[in-house]
Amino acid sequence: MAGGQQTTSLRTYALTRLGLALPMVLILLTMVFLLLRVAPGDPITAALGGRLPPEQLEERREAAGYNRSLAVQYLEYLGNVATLDFGETIVDNRPVTRVITQNGAATLELTVVALFVALLVGIGVGLVSGRYRDTPVDVAGRLFGILIYAAPVFFLGFLAQLVFAQWLGWFPTSGRASPVTSYDLDTPTNLFLVDSLIALDFSAFSDVLSHLVLPAVTLGLVTGGVFIRLIRVNVLQTLQGDYIEAARARGLSERTVMWHHAFRNALVPVITVVGLQVALLLGGAVLTEQTFNWPGIGSELIRYLNNRDYIAIQGIITFFALVVVIVSLLIDLLNAWVDPRVRY
Length: 344
Description:
The protein is mainly alpha-helical. It has two domains: 1-91 and 307-344, no CATH class; 105-273, no CATH class. It has helices spanning 2-35, 43-48, 54-64, 70-82, 96-131, 136-150, 153-167, 179-184, 192-198, 202-239, 242-249, 254-266, 268-291, 297-306, 310-338. 33% of the residues are buried.
């Protein structure tokens, strides 16, 4: 009976959370649509003004639908987003969906590995720092967390390039892979690490991984600063719990108390924070990709911004917004499944 009630409550929570996500998506889409239309003129004129005669500009504006009312454009925009049609770029006539699938794979690869680095560093340093409170180890851990959280990602990137690429020569400074690997590697998923493993090409895998290390570690360290502080605080709170004292009173070893009781419970809030860090990772990926010349969607966004291609900008930002909402929804559902208290 209790198991059935828990399943029902989880289902109710999931439906409620999904219902709340829909208006959130609508608000985000509306904000993106309106913000890119606050500037005077229209995307066609902004991107191609001065390059084409007025007659051709007018033809392009009419073909793109910018002569119609704002309400009609808004409804058409929502309909296109519902079918994952983000339009076509102005400067190079590429479907924005193709930009997202091709360059977005590079950003996905970067952010996933960076998240792994952030969790590894944040959980490791945070647990040790919380375990040895007010010792030199704790002070060093807290100082490290503050420094990497406060440091600009491009500064850490340039520093990493200087030390590990220029001085030591351990890693490449830019790109996803060497020219030979990029040319020879079959990329059905555009995820070079995955594609090289599928092809059992370990030489290509090693080359791709060496190019990925510096940008992923740089982005992961900046994000890891958040996890260090969070884990440390939760470890300190957990160690003050009554069940920790009860475990010690039962004669359990300190190692067992720490790993099987304190540390596990201290990791529960990390699930929630992971979802919140997705937006930070995507924002940091833009600067990281510029620093390391990483051909991801962030680099494309900067290029379209420089060319005032508002259609491409609108499509990419819309995609970012949808990703953040979907990941937040999935994290909330996972959190509710792990911790039943969230459902009530």
